[in-house]
Amino acid sequence: xxxxxxxxxxxxxxxxxxxxxxxxxxxxxxxxxxxxxxxxxxxxxxxxxxxxxxxxxxxxxxxxxxxxxxxxxxxxxxxxxxxxxxxxxxxxxxxxxxxxxxxxxxxxxxxxxxxxxxxxxxx
Length: 123
Description:
Shape: globular
Number of helices: 0
Distance between the termini: 40 Å
């Protein structure tokens, strides 16, 4: 199994950038696909991005496409989310997740979750 810890959240002004990281512990990190989700107060958990175990395939939610980039470093057992051109609407708790089944945009396809990290974008 995998344990995940997110870090890198914080307060940033609109238009700024922030990089989130997810540190994973596990014996076979590369076999897991990684996903990023976010949840704002009063809203459902939203798919942000995902990346296959090899890093070859990536998906992005419509609201972040072109602004966010997901990556991973299997040697360091980390996944990252580079967030550029941030908007106040991006304010949420961001979660990283890992799964071994079919990689989709659905949260229930992921098996392991981090504790979340707060991202706040001020206008």
